[in-house]
Predict the structure of DUF1479-domain-containing protein.
Amino acid sequence: MSNWCEWPPRFLDLKRKIVSETTQERLTASWNDLLGELATRTAEIAKAGPDFVPQVNFADLDKLTPEEISVIKRKGSVVIRDVVDTKTATGWKAELEEFVKANPHAEGTPNQDKQFFHLYWTRSQVQARAHPNVLKASAWLNNLYSVKSGKTLEGVDLSVPLTYADRFRIRHPGGHWGNFPPHIDSGAIERWEDEAFRRCYEDILTGNWRQHDPYELENRLNARMSLYGRPGQASVFRSFQGWLAMSETGPTQGTLRVFPDVQLSNAYVILRPFFRPTVLEDSPDILDPKNWKFDISTADFPGIFPLDRGYKGPLPTPRHHPHLRLRETMTSVPQVYPGDMVFWHCDVVHSVETEHTGSTDSAVMYIGAVPKTPQNSAYIVKQAQTFLVGQNPPDFAKLTDEKMFVGLGTDVDVKEPISRVAMGLPIEVA
Ligand SMILES: [Fe+2]
Protein backbone atom coordinates (compact mmCIF):
# COMPACT_ATOMS: atom_id res chain seq x y z
CA MET A 1 0.00 0.00 0.00
CA SER A 2 1.14 3.50 -0.51
CA ASN A 3 -0.10 4.69 2.91
CA TRP A 4 -2.05 7.50 1.35
CA CYS A 5 -3.65 8.34 4.67
CA GLU A 6 -0.25 9.42 5.96
CA TRP A 7 0.35 11.81 3.10
CA PRO A 8 0.38 15.43 4.19
CA PRO A 9 -2.08 17.68 2.37
CA ARG A 10 0.80 19.68 0.93
CA PHE A 11 1.41 16.78 -1.45
CA LEU A 12 -2.04 17.32 -2.85
CA ASP A 13 -1.04 20.94 -3.48
CA LEU A 14 2.18 19.69 -5.02
CA LYS A 15 0.31 17.45 -7.44
CA ARG A 16 -1.96 20.30 -8.44
CA LYS A 17 0.93 22.66 -8.88
CA ILE A 18 2.80 20.20 -11.10
CA VAL A 19 -0.12 19.31 -13.28
CA SER A 20 -2.80 21.90 -13.53
CA GLU A 21 -6.26 20.86 -14.65
CA THR A 22 -5.66 22.74 -17.88
CA THR A 23 -3.14 20.16 -19.07
CA GLN A 24 -5.44 17.26 -18.26
CA GLU A 25 -6.36 16.53 -21.86
CA ARG A 26 -2.82 16.65 -23.12
CA LEU A 27 -1.52 14.56 -20.26
CA THR A 28 -4.22 11.94 -20.70
CA ALA A 29 -3.39 11.62 -24.41
CA SER A 30 0.29 11.24 -23.53
CA TRP A 31 -0.51 8.66 -20.83
CA ASN A 32 -2.58 6.62 -23.28
CA ASP A 33 0.21 6.78 -25.83
CA LEU A 34 2.64 5.64 -23.13
CA LEU A 35 0.45 2.69 -22.15
CA GLY A 36 0.32 1.62 -25.80
CA GLU A 37 4.10 1.77 -26.08
CA LEU A 38 4.52 -0.10 -22.80
CA ALA A 39 2.25 -2.89 -24.01
CA THR A 40 4.48 -3.45 -27.03
CA ARG A 41 7.79 -2.98 -25.30
CA THR A 42 7.02 -5.08 -22.21
CA ALA A 43 5.93 -7.97 -24.46
CA GLU A 44 9.25 -7.70 -26.29
CA ILE A 45 11.27 -7.58 -23.05
CA ALA A 46 9.39 -10.48 -21.46
CA LYS A 47 10.08 -12.64 -24.51
CA ALA A 48 13.74 -11.73 -24.86
CA GLY A 49 15.26 -12.63 -21.48
CA PRO A 50 18.80 -11.75 -20.34
CA ASP A 51 20.19 -11.19 -23.84
CA PHE A 52 18.05 -8.05 -24.06
CA VAL A 53 20.66 -6.37 -21.84
CA PRO A 54 23.45 -5.04 -24.11
CA GLN A 55 26.89 -6.59 -23.75
CA VAL A 56 30.07 -4.96 -25.03
CA ASN A 57 33.77 -5.60 -24.66
CA PHE A 58 35.77 -3.05 -22.74
CA ALA A 59 38.28 -2.97 -25.59
CA ASP A 60 35.51 -1.99 -28.04
CA LEU A 61 34.01 0.90 -26.08
CA ASP A 62 35.46 3.52 -28.39
CA LYS A 63 34.44 1.61 -31.51
CA LEU A 64 30.70 1.35 -30.90
CA THR A 65 28.39 2.70 -33.59
CA PRO A 66 25.89 5.47 -32.81
CA GLU A 67 23.14 2.82 -33.15
CA GLU A 68 24.78 0.57 -30.58
CA ILE A 69 25.19 3.49 -28.22
CA SER A 70 21.59 4.52 -28.62
CA VAL A 71 20.44 0.97 -27.75
CA ILE A 72 22.53 1.08 -24.57
CA LYS A 73 21.08 4.49 -23.69
CA ARG A 74 17.50 3.42 -24.29
CA LYS A 75 17.83 0.23 -22.27
CA GLY A 76 19.81 2.02 -19.56
CA SER A 77 21.88 -1.02 -18.54
CA VAL A 78 25.00 -2.59 -19.99
CA VAL A 79 27.44 -5.40 -19.31
CA ILE A 80 31.02 -4.39 -20.07
CA ARG A 81 33.18 -7.47 -20.51
CA ASP A 82 36.82 -7.84 -19.45
CA VAL A 83 37.29 -4.48 -17.79
CA VAL A 84 40.00 -6.12 -15.72
CA ASP A 85 41.58 -9.51 -16.26
CA THR A 86 40.23 -12.62 -14.58
CA LYS A 87 43.28 -13.17 -12.40
CA THR A 88 43.14 -9.67 -10.96
CA ALA A 89 39.41 -9.90 -10.22
CA THR A 90 39.58 -13.33 -8.60
CA GLY A 91 42.66 -12.18 -6.68
CA TRP A 92 40.62 -9.31 -5.24
CA LYS A 93 37.94 -11.75 -4.12
CA ALA A 94 40.50 -14.01 -2.45
CA GLU A 95 41.99 -11.02 -0.66
CA LEU A 96 38.55 -9.88 0.51
CA GLU A 97 37.92 -13.35 1.92
CA GLU A 98 41.21 -13.18 3.77
CA PHE A 99 40.32 -9.73 5.01
CA VAL A 100 37.03 -10.81 6.55
CA LYS A 101 38.68 -13.84 8.10
CA ALA A 102 41.38 -11.67 9.63
CA ASN A 103 38.79 -9.14 10.83
CA PRO A 104 35.90 -11.20 12.18
CA HIS A 105 34.32 -8.17 13.86
CA ALA A 106 33.77 -6.44 10.48
CA GLU A 107 30.13 -5.41 10.08
CA GLY A 108 28.09 -7.47 7.65
CA THR A 109 24.75 -9.14 7.11
CA PRO A 110 23.30 -11.59 7.84
CA ASN A 111 24.97 -11.56 11.22
CA GLN A 112 25.53 -15.33 11.49
CA ASP A 113 26.88 -15.78 7.98
CA LYS A 114 28.10 -12.42 6.73
CA GLN A 115 27.85 -11.89 2.99
CA PHE A 116 27.11 -8.19 2.49
CA PHE A 117 29.89 -6.19 4.10
CA HIS A 118 29.86 -2.63 5.38
CA LEU A 119 33.46 -2.18 4.41
CA TYR A 120 34.82 0.51 2.13
CA TRP A 121 38.58 0.70 2.28
CA THR A 122 39.93 -2.85 2.01
CA ARG A 123 42.95 -3.04 -0.27
CA SER A 124 40.97 -4.91 -2.94
CA GLN A 125 38.30 -2.21 -3.05
CA VAL A 126 40.81 0.63 -3.13
CA GLN A 127 42.76 -1.04 -5.93
CA ALA A 128 39.65 -1.92 -7.94
CA ARG A 129 38.27 1.62 -7.83
CA ALA A 130 41.69 2.97 -8.75
CA HIS A 131 42.15 0.61 -11.69
CA PRO A 132 42.58 2.76 -14.84
CA ASN A 133 40.22 0.53 -16.87
CA VAL A 134 37.48 0.81 -14.27
CA LEU A 135 37.88 4.59 -14.39
CA LYS A 136 37.93 4.59 -18.19
CA ALA A 137 34.65 2.64 -18.25
CA SER A 138 33.24 5.16 -15.81
CA ALA A 139 34.27 8.10 -18.00
CA TRP A 140 32.75 6.43 -21.06
CA LEU A 141 29.43 6.05 -19.24
CA ASN A 142 29.55 9.61 -17.91
CA ASN A 143 29.95 10.82 -21.47
CA LEU A 144 26.61 9.31 -22.46
CA TYR A 145 25.15 12.39 -20.74
CA SER A 146 25.05 15.78 -22.41
CA VAL A 147 23.88 19.33 -21.79
CA LYS A 148 20.92 20.13 -24.02
CA SER A 149 21.32 23.87 -23.69
CA GLY A 150 24.91 23.60 -24.95
CA LYS A 151 26.08 25.64 -21.94
CA THR A 152 29.49 24.99 -20.44
CA LEU A 153 28.83 24.01 -16.86
CA GLU A 154 31.41 25.30 -14.45
CA GLY A 155 33.36 22.63 -12.61
CA VAL A 156 31.95 19.84 -14.79
CA ASP A 157 34.13 17.49 -16.80
CA LEU A 158 32.55 14.23 -17.91
CA SER A 159 35.91 12.87 -18.97
CA VAL A 160 37.30 13.08 -15.45
CA PRO A 161 35.95 10.13 -13.48
CA LEU A 162 35.74 10.28 -9.70
CA THR A 163 35.37 7.42 -7.25
CA TYR A 164 32.57 6.72 -4.81
CA ALA A 165 33.51 4.31 -2.06
CA ASP A 166 30.78 1.72 -1.57
CA ARG A 167 30.57 -1.83 -0.24
CA PHE A 168 30.84 -5.39 -1.60
CA ARG A 169 29.02 -8.67 -1.34
CA ILE A 170 30.12 -12.27 -1.45
CA ARG A 171 26.77 -13.97 -1.66
CA HIS A 172 26.75 -17.67 -0.87
CA PRO A 173 24.57 -20.21 -2.69
CA GLY A 174 21.15 -20.81 -1.17
CA GLY A 175 19.61 -18.40 1.28
CA HIS A 176 16.92 -15.88 0.58
CA TRP A 177 17.54 -12.16 -0.04
CA GLY A 178 14.28 -10.31 0.22
CA ASN A 179 15.55 -6.80 0.81
CA PHE A 180 16.04 -5.72 -2.77
CA PRO A 181 12.71 -5.75 -4.61
CA PRO A 182 12.34 -3.57 -7.74
CA HIS A 183 13.31 -0.01 -6.81
CA ILE A 184 14.95 3.17 -8.05
CA ASP A 185 17.72 4.71 -5.96
CA SER A 186 18.74 8.28 -5.31
CA GLY A 187 15.65 10.26 -4.49
CA ALA A 188 12.04 9.36 -3.65
CA ILE A 189 9.34 12.05 -3.42
CA GLU A 190 12.19 14.44 -4.27
CA ARG A 191 11.67 13.52 -7.94
CA TRP A 192 8.44 15.49 -7.82
CA GLU A 193 8.97 17.75 -4.84
CA ASP A 194 12.34 19.30 -5.64
CA GLU A 195 11.97 21.77 -8.49
CA ALA A 196 15.36 21.09 -10.06
CA PHE A 197 14.91 17.32 -9.81
CA ARG A 198 11.44 17.66 -11.31
CA ARG A 199 12.90 19.51 -14.27
CA CYS A 200 14.69 16.27 -15.23
CA TYR A 201 11.21 14.96 -16.02
CA GLU A 202 9.68 18.13 -17.40
CA ASP A 203 8.91 16.67 -20.82
CA ILE A 204 7.04 13.81 -19.17
CA LEU A 205 5.06 16.13 -16.93
CA THR A 206 4.05 18.37 -19.81
CA GLY A 207 2.72 15.52 -21.90
CA ASN A 208 5.76 14.93 -24.12
CA TRP A 209 7.23 11.73 -22.71
CA ARG A 210 8.71 10.78 -26.08
CA GLN A 211 10.98 13.84 -25.80
CA HIS A 212 12.20 12.82 -22.35
CA ASP A 213 15.97 12.40 -22.27
CA PRO A 214 17.23 10.58 -19.16
CA TYR A 215 20.76 11.69 -20.12
CA GLU A 216 20.23 15.44 -19.88
CA LEU A 217 22.83 16.57 -17.38
CA GLU A 218 22.12 20.13 -16.36
CA ASN A 219 19.09 19.54 -14.15
CA ARG A 220 20.60 16.41 -12.64
CA LEU A 221 23.40 18.48 -11.21
CA ASN A 222 21.07 20.82 -9.35
CA ALA A 223 18.64 18.10 -8.29
CA ARG A 224 18.39 17.65 -4.54
CA MET A 225 18.03 13.91 -4.13
CA SER A 226 17.74 13.97 -0.36
CA LEU A 227 15.41 16.67 0.99
CA TYR A 228 14.80 14.88 4.28
CA GLY A 229 18.34 13.87 5.18
CA ARG A 230 17.54 10.17 5.48
CA PRO A 231 20.66 8.12 6.27
CA GLY A 232 22.18 5.85 3.63
CA GLN A 233 21.22 8.02 0.67
CA ALA A 234 23.99 8.82 -1.76
CA SER A 235 24.70 12.53 -1.84
CA VAL A 236 26.77 12.34 -5.03
CA PHE A 237 25.49 12.15 -8.57
CA ARG A 238 26.24 8.75 -10.05
CA SER A 239 25.53 8.70 -13.77
CA PHE A 240 25.31 4.93 -13.54
CA GLN A 241 25.39 2.60 -10.62
CA GLY A 242 27.51 -0.43 -11.13
CA TRP A 243 29.39 -3.41 -9.89
CA LEU A 244 32.45 -5.39 -10.77
CA ALA A 245 32.07 -9.17 -10.87
CA MET A 246 34.60 -11.20 -8.92
CA SER A 247 32.97 -14.56 -9.70
CA GLU A 248 31.12 -16.27 -12.51
CA THR A 249 27.43 -15.64 -11.91
CA GLY A 250 24.45 -16.21 -14.14
CA PRO A 251 20.70 -15.66 -14.02
CA THR A 252 19.06 -17.40 -11.00
CA GLN A 253 22.35 -17.21 -9.11
CA GLY A 254 21.51 -14.16 -7.04
CA THR A 255 22.31 -11.59 -9.71
CA LEU A 256 20.93 -8.18 -10.66
CA ARG A 257 17.64 -7.67 -12.45
CA VAL A 258 16.69 -4.58 -14.40
CA PHE A 259 13.70 -3.15 -16.22
CA PRO A 260 15.56 -2.52 -19.46
CA ASP A 261 13.94 0.62 -20.83
CA VAL A 262 14.77 3.69 -18.78
CA GLN A 263 12.81 6.18 -20.84
CA LEU A 264 9.60 4.18 -20.52
CA SER A 265 9.95 3.36 -16.83
CA ASN A 266 10.71 7.01 -16.05
CA ALA A 267 7.68 8.18 -17.98
CA TYR A 268 5.40 5.67 -16.28
CA VAL A 269 6.67 6.05 -12.72
CA ILE A 270 6.58 9.87 -12.93
CA LEU A 271 3.06 10.05 -14.44
CA ARG A 272 1.53 7.28 -12.36
CA PRO A 273 0.54 9.49 -9.35
CA PHE A 274 -1.68 11.56 -11.63
CA PHE A 275 -3.80 8.64 -12.82
CA ARG A 276 -5.90 6.06 -11.08
CA PRO A 277 -7.62 2.86 -12.16
CA THR A 278 -11.39 2.85 -12.44
CA VAL A 279 -11.50 -0.94 -11.94
CA LEU A 280 -10.18 -3.01 -9.04
CA GLU A 281 -6.41 -3.42 -8.97
CA ASP A 282 -6.75 -7.18 -9.47
CA SER A 283 -9.19 -6.85 -12.35
CA PRO A 284 -8.18 -8.79 -15.49
CA ASP A 285 -8.80 -5.55 -17.40
CA ILE A 286 -6.45 -3.44 -15.32
CA LEU A 287 -4.07 -2.88 -18.25
CA ASP A 288 -6.73 -1.46 -20.54
CA PRO A 289 -6.11 2.31 -20.92
CA LYS A 290 -9.87 2.82 -20.87
CA ASN A 291 -9.84 1.76 -17.23
CA TRP A 292 -7.53 4.58 -16.12
CA LYS A 293 -8.38 8.15 -15.46
CA PHE A 294 -6.62 11.42 -14.73
CA ASP A 295 -7.11 12.18 -11.04
CA ILE A 296 -5.37 14.69 -8.79
CA SER A 297 -7.86 14.60 -5.94
CA THR A 298 -5.65 12.60 -3.54
CA ALA A 299 -2.22 13.29 -2.06
CA ASP A 300 -0.73 9.83 -2.58
CA PHE A 301 2.26 8.97 -4.72
CA PRO A 302 2.07 5.23 -5.50
CA GLY A 303 5.39 3.51 -4.92
CA ILE A 304 6.63 6.13 -2.42
CA PHE A 305 6.54 5.24 1.28
CA PRO A 306 7.03 7.39 4.39
CA LEU A 307 10.17 6.34 6.30
CA ASP A 308 12.50 7.90 8.88
CA ARG A 309 10.71 11.25 8.73
CA GLY A 310 11.33 11.25 4.99
CA TYR A 311 10.29 9.01 2.13
CA LYS A 312 11.63 5.93 0.44
CA GLY A 313 11.07 4.68 -3.10
CA PRO A 314 10.14 4.68 -5.85
CA LEU A 315 9.35 1.00 -5.29
CA PRO A 316 7.23 0.01 -8.29
CA THR A 317 5.05 -3.03 -7.66
CA PRO A 318 2.89 -5.19 -9.93
CA ARG A 319 -0.12 -3.96 -7.96
CA HIS A 320 0.51 -0.23 -8.25
CA HIS A 321 2.46 -0.19 -11.51
CA PRO A 322 0.78 -2.95 -13.49
CA HIS A 323 1.78 -1.72 -16.95
CA LEU A 324 5.44 -2.38 -16.24
CA ARG A 325 4.50 -6.10 -16.01
CA LEU A 326 7.35 -6.46 -13.53
CA ARG A 327 6.89 -10.20 -12.92
CA GLU A 328 7.79 -10.85 -16.54
CA THR A 329 9.99 -7.90 -17.42
CA MET A 330 12.49 -7.67 -14.56
CA THR A 331 15.35 -9.11 -16.57
CA SER A 332 18.34 -10.84 -15.03
CA VAL A 333 21.62 -9.60 -16.44
CA PRO A 334 23.45 -12.20 -18.56
CA GLN A 335 26.14 -14.51 -17.21
CA VAL A 336 29.12 -12.49 -15.98
CA TYR A 337 32.71 -13.56 -15.40
CA PRO A 338 35.36 -12.20 -13.05
CA GLY A 339 36.48 -8.81 -14.35
CA ASP A 340 33.20 -7.95 -16.13
CA MET A 341 31.25 -4.94 -14.95
CA VAL A 342 27.53 -4.23 -14.99
CA PHE A 343 26.19 -0.67 -15.01
CA TRP A 344 22.66 0.69 -14.79
CA HIS A 345 21.50 4.30 -15.22
CA CYS A 346 20.65 6.05 -11.95
CA ASP A 347 16.92 5.98 -12.82
CA VAL A 348 16.73 2.30 -13.81
CA VAL A 349 14.28 0.11 -11.89
CA HIS A 350 16.42 -2.71 -10.50
CA SER A 351 16.30 -5.56 -7.99
CA VAL A 352 18.39 -8.46 -6.78
CA GLU A 353 17.24 -12.03 -7.33
CA THR A 354 15.84 -13.37 -4.07
CA GLU A 355 17.22 -16.89 -4.61
CA HIS A 356 20.71 -18.06 -5.44
CA THR A 357 20.37 -21.51 -6.99
CA GLY A 358 24.01 -21.80 -8.08
CA SER A 359 26.78 -23.71 -6.35
CA THR A 360 29.40 -20.97 -6.02
CA ASP A 361 29.58 -17.46 -4.59
CA SER A 362 28.07 -14.50 -6.38
CA ALA A 363 30.62 -11.83 -5.54
CA VAL A 364 30.63 -8.19 -6.62
CA MET A 365 32.16 -4.89 -5.60
CA TYR A 366 29.82 -1.92 -5.98
CA ILE A 367 31.54 0.67 -8.16
CA GLY A 368 29.40 3.32 -9.83
CA ALA A 369 30.27 5.85 -12.53
CA VAL A 370 30.80 9.29 -11.03
CA PRO A 371 31.59 12.36 -13.15
CA LYS A 372 33.50 15.41 -12.02
CA THR A 373 30.93 17.99 -10.94
CA PRO A 374 31.16 20.65 -8.23
CA GLN A 375 29.02 18.62 -5.81
CA ASN A 376 30.88 15.37 -6.51
CA SER A 377 34.27 17.08 -6.24
CA ALA A 378 33.32 18.48 -2.84
CA TYR A 379 32.29 14.99 -1.71
CA ILE A 380 35.51 13.31 -2.75
CA VAL A 381 37.55 15.82 -0.76
CA LYS A 382 35.69 14.71 2.38
CA GLN A 383 35.80 11.09 1.23
CA ALA A 384 39.59 11.23 0.78
CA GLN A 385 39.93 12.47 4.36
CA THR A 386 38.00 9.46 5.63
CA PHE A 387 40.13 7.16 3.47
CA LEU A 388 43.38 8.49 4.87
CA VAL A 389 42.25 7.93 8.46
CA GLY A 390 40.42 4.65 7.78
CA GLN A 391 36.90 5.80 8.59
CA ASN A 392 33.62 5.10 6.82
CA PRO A 393 32.96 7.47 3.89
CA PRO A 394 30.78 10.53 4.64
CA ASP A 395 27.55 9.06 3.14
CA PHE A 396 27.67 5.96 5.36
CA ALA A 397 26.93 5.50 9.03
CA LYS A 398 29.98 5.05 11.22
CA LEU A 399 29.39 1.48 12.36
CA THR A 400 32.98 0.61 13.11
CA ASP A 401 36.30 2.29 12.86
CA GLU A 402 37.94 0.68 9.84
CA LYS A 403 41.35 1.86 10.94
CA MET A 404 41.32 -0.91 13.53
CA PHE A 405 41.26 -3.46 10.70
CA VAL A 406 44.20 -5.37 9.26
CA GLY A 407 44.68 -5.20 5.49
CA LEU A 408 43.22 -1.83 4.54
CA GLY A 409 44.25 -0.09 1.36
CA THR A 410 46.50 2.90 1.76
CA ASP A 411 47.69 5.88 -0.24
CA VAL A 412 50.29 3.76 -2.07
CA ASP A 413 47.58 1.52 -3.54
CA VAL A 414 46.39 4.48 -5.62
CA LYS A 415 49.21 4.88 -8.08
CA GLU A 416 48.19 6.31 -11.45
CA PRO A 417 47.51 10.03 -11.85
CA ILE A 418 43.97 9.28 -13.17
CA SER A 419 43.30 7.25 -10.02
CA ARG A 420 44.70 9.84 -7.64
CA VAL A 421 42.59 12.58 -9.21
CA ALA A 422 39.56 10.29 -8.99
CA MET A 423 40.22 9.75 -5.31
CA GLY A 424 40.85 13.42 -4.55
CA LEU A 425 44.45 12.71 -3.55
CA PRO A 426 47.52 14.81 -4.41
CA ILE A 427 49.11 13.52 -7.65
CA GLU A 428 52.32 12.58 -5.86
CA VAL A 429 52.07 9.57 -3.57
CA ALA A 430 52.77 10.75 -0.01
FE1 LIG B 1 19.59 -0.09 -5.57
